[in-house]
Write a structure and sequence with these properties.
There is one protein chain. The chain has 237 residues and is of the alpha/beta class. The chain starts with a strand and ends with a helix. The strands form two sheets. The protein has an eight-stranded mixed beta sheet, with helices on both faces. 35% of the residues lie in helices and 22% in strands. The chain is globular, with a radius of gyration of 17 Å. It has nine helices and ten strands. The longest helix is centred in the first third of the chain and has 15 residues, at 69-83. A hairpin with a 2-residue loop joins strand 7 and strand 8. It has one domain: Spore Coat Polysaccharide Biosynthesis Protein SpsA, Chain A.
Length: 237
């Protein structure tokens, strides 16, 4: 099992992210390799990640200047697939972001759902401890869920089998933003078994300054700029 985590200037959050994935690794019976790809960092992300102790998973930290979200995710995944002692088609690939915390059952739920699914998209929740009440209310009002189901796709919370990943050529290397929708649409177009479920959740940062314009933080920022028209400005599908 490979967990890919792209990171750019995330020295303040990468330790907690890795630790949360390590706790999740304790709940599965398969080996877990976590790959952190530190992209064009100007802070201590690489050093902090390398010094983070893990007990239940193996950790690899690489650094480079890939410059795009899709490319950074792709490098992290490929690094993991090159190391894991199994056919890459049978390896489950989990993806999250460096400013996220995953729950203890995050990996177990994916493996259970993978029995009938080739790719699984979960949801994100804002960190209740660091999110202003007004932003939390605005986000909750516009982030539509339907029981166990939803219509969202987030690179911060998506898993897929290696065979499905290879079939679509992996993460798009040229995509600066929206790489999650690109790979999801590609898998749908070739007929893979898709599932979007609220069973799979991660906690993410409420920051409104995006690493790239058009990302999730940009959507949150729009909530503060135009609070009277939330349904039009928020598009975090």
């Amino acid at each position: 099992m490979v967990v890919a985590i792209p990171a750019r200037d995330e020295a303040g959050s990468i330790h907690a992210c890795i630790r949360s994935v390590d706790r999740a690794a304790a709940e599965v019976a398969v080996p877990v390799l976590v790959v952190v790809a530190a992209d064009s960092c100007m802070d201590d992300t690489f050093a902090v990640a390398r010094s983070t102790p893990t007990e239940f998973c193996e950790l690899a930290v690489i650094e480079g200047a890939w410059g795009r979200a899709g490319a950074t995710r792709a490098v992290a995944v490929q690094y993991g697939l090159d190391i894991v002692p199994a056919d890459s088609g049978s390896v489950w690939i989990s993806n999250t972001d460096a400013d996220c915390l995953v729950p203890p059952l995050w990996l177990r739920v994916q493996l259970e759902l993978a029995i009938e699914s080739d790719v699984i998209a979960g949801i994100v929740e804002l960190d209740p401890e660091s999110t202003e009440p007004a932003l939390m209310d605005a986000f909750t009002a516009t982030y539509i869920l339907d029981g166990e189901h939803h219509g969202h796709v987030h690179g911060a919370n998506i898993g897929m089998c290696g065979a499905a990943y290879r079939a679509v050529g992996g993460w798009c290397l040229k995509t600066v933003v929206g790489e999650d929708h690109v790979i999801w649409d590609a898998m749908r177009d070739v007929g893979h078994r898709m599932r979007q479920t609220t069973q799979l959740r991660v906690i993410t940062s409420p920051r409104t300054r995006s690493r790239v314009f058009g990302g999730f933080a940009t959507d949150l920022d729009k909530l503060g700029v135009q609070p009277r028209d939330l349904t039009e400005v928020l598009d975090v599908a």
